[in-house]
Amino acid sequence: QVQLVESGGGLVQAGGSLRLSCAASGIIFRLNTLGWYRQAPGKQRDLVAVITTDGSANYTDSVKGRFTISRDNSKNSVYLQMNSLKPEDTGVYYCNARLRQQSWGGSWGQGTQVTVSS
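^ thats the sequence. predicted structure below, dont judge the formating
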């Protein structure tokens, strides 16, 4: 059974930083591409950052230059360092995982709330 546990969210003022963590179990972690999703209030859940098995990272345009995704295979964890936060970054952040040539998993965790005040 896949389990994904997000943590590290909180309240922060615009311009501040947060570091999110996601601990995964029930998967062969090193074989999975990992991603962070964000669901803003009243909006769909969108992919904001991805890191592949070899450490290559990609980001949605709105977070490029501000967010950094990383992984630690020894800890079965993926992280999202968020700097220069903006109010529009507010939302619930979720992690997910997928194998190559496969879809993102359907077992979402509880997410972690990030609120950026102006």
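The first strand starts at residue 3 and ends at 7.
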